[in-house]
Design brief:
Elements (H helix, E strand, L loop, with lengths): L3 E5 L6 H15 L12 E5 L3 H10 L3 E3 L2 E6 L14 H9 L3 E7 L15 H26 L1 H5 L3 H18 L14 H6 L8 E6 L10 H13 L2 E5 L1 H7 L4 H11 L5 H12 L2 E7 L3 E8 L4 H8 L1 H5 L1 E7 L1 H6 L3 H6 L4 E3 L10 E6 L2
Parallel strand pairs: 1-4, 1-5, 3-9, 5-6, 6-7
Antiparallel strand pairs: 2-4, 8-9, 10-11, 10-12
Helix pairs in contact: 1-9, 4-6
Length: 365
Amino acid sequence: MGFKTGIVGLPNVGKSTLFNALTRTAAAQAANFPFCTIEPNVGEVAVPDARLAKLARIAKSQSVIPARMTFVDIAGLVKGASKGEGLGNQFLANIRETDAIAHVLRCFEDGDVTHVEGRVDPVEDAATIETELMLADLESIEKRLQNIVRKVRGGDKEALLQERLLKVAQAALEAGHPARTVDISDEERKAWDMLQLLTSKPVLYVCNVAEDEAAKGNAHSDRVTKMADEQGAASVVISARIEEEISQLDPEEAQMFLDEMGLEEAGLDRLIRAGYQLLDLQTFFTAGPKEARAWTIAKGTLAPAAAGVIHGDFEKGFIRAETIAYDDYLAYGGEAGAKDAGKMRAEGKGYVVKDGDVLHFLHSG
């Protein structure tokens, strides 16, 4: 199950520097877990999770395989992208294929790095990109409404639902609000997602600050945090230059560097976790002598669907899930101890998997 977060930003905001750090990190991790494919514009990185190493120690696992997040470097954006200016059409097509948007904003002062608008104003920069995405959505909605006129007149149920959702989105956009602000019911969610509106995607604002401001941010990043809170979006403060330096060091050197800078952890770790949370994801584990592994699922996933993440046949032939809560697995020294203490539960098809569950699936076939 792949989850893609697109990294976007205006020119000279540090987007490429940040992405280079991500891809170097991904390259360094490539030997540690399988299926890590790295293309020029894609970086697949491990999701930091201290729980996995603890499980592996208890289970005496030979290998440790973390959950993964994919970041996609989206072509640079300029004002007018919705009309095809610059690489506008490519930008919009690439963003449509992602699950969320990480919007890099310039929150640093540097006279040697020019800004396309000749000023440093991250909130205004965010508005520039948001406006382009909203204009593109409005154009897309108008075309789609025209294309379904005949089906709507014929009373086609699917077309009628699509028309209603498109008009709700259109009204929000015309009022100056992105599509993600529209309240959609669970029953309508699938049809809504199929519209693939650019502004319906969750947003993470990445405040790129100077190296000496990485620990606490600055006035610019404070404004972005306030804006994100008002929008119900997420934000993270990071120094792309620091991340690029860290990505070239071995783990021990990187930790020393972080200590010197007064940072508890790499900004990329916070960025990856924030992207994970933004997509409403959670982790379950499998642990044994061969491997300890973290698996990614959406919150609210039922046990059979979680089994299907491991292999499609597990979902089809699902019988039950032997479940141990993470804390119980640690407290009782692993599967055998937890089972003896009565902490292993047999859960059926209706079980909603919890974050941190250590699972073993029984299935037919």
